[in-house]
Design a protein that fits this description.
The protein is of the alpha/beta class. It has 6 helices and 12 strands. Helix content is 25%, strand content 27%. It binds fe (ii) ion.
Length: 224
């Protein structure tokens, strides 16, 4: 399944968190899944009426508030199913209408397009990435220039290191990386270039832990 068979529509949240909101559209059926719907509902409804897609699913990388903002509206207006990892929902007592749970390596279908769910804990206990043949949606796990913070209930910097190793072993060089937040570099960079330029892919466990948890980081959005 490559980008000959599906499209990616990107929306940018205009609130201070500036999330990237991606929609995967199966080209033949026009069925679609939106990932981490953070932006204004108006942006989503405009996109749906402009493109004529059939929004069936909401995929959640993790349950932080900026990633789940429009779930209620999307279920109400479009009857979407909402997919989140079982670990994430169980640990944080997350619940919503039409909730569906997935486990590691489970495969979801949007029309003819297959999406593999990879559980990648670290930022939260049940964070997930969504892998298509040539795209990886990484939520707050892998950023182009860094990785998500590992602070708070269920977070673990050692798990984050292990998730980076898992992604390294599982993802091909030419896969394009789509994080939930981007800073100075656009999403859609190849995994090969991310591995070369993102310091977290170059560190051994001890250094990774020390660098990610170093003191005096600027704020919640310190990603590098
Ligand atoms: Fe987050």
């Amino acid at each position: 399944m490559n980008q000959d068979t599906y499209d990616i529509i990107s929306l940018k949240d205009t609130s201070f968190t500036k999330n990237n909101v991606y929609t995967i559209v199966d080209k033949i059926t026009r069925k679609a899944a939106i990932i981490d719907p953070a932006c204004d509902m108006r942006q989503i409804t405009d996109m749906i009426s402009r493109t004529g897609i059939v929004l069936e699913q909401v995929l959640i990388t993790h349950s932080h508030p900026d990633h789940i903002r429009r779930i209620g509206d999307l279920v109400y207006h479009y009857g979407c199913s909402v997919y989140i990892s079982r670990t994430e929902a169980d640990y944080y007592c997350f619940n919503c209408p039409n909730m569906m749970l997935f486990d590691d390596e489970e495969i979801l279908a949007v029309g003819n397009t297959k999406i593999t769910c990879l559980i990648t804990p670290g930022h939260t206990i049940g964070s997930a990435c969504f892998l298509l043949e040539d795209s990886l949606f990484t939520g707050d796990t892998v950023f182009i220039e860094g990785c998500g913070i590992c602070i708070g209930a269920g977070a673990s910097v050692v798990s984050m290191y292990q998730s980076f190793q898992k992604i390294k072993a599982r993802v091909e060089n030419d896969v394009k990386i789509y994080p939930a937040h981007t800073y100075n570099i656009l999403p859609g960079q190849t995994f090969k270039s991310v591995k070369q330029n993102n310091v977290y892919f170059c560190l051994e466990e001890e250094q990774f832990v020390a660098f990610r948890m170093r003191k005096n980081q600027k704020n919640l959005f310190s990603f590098s």
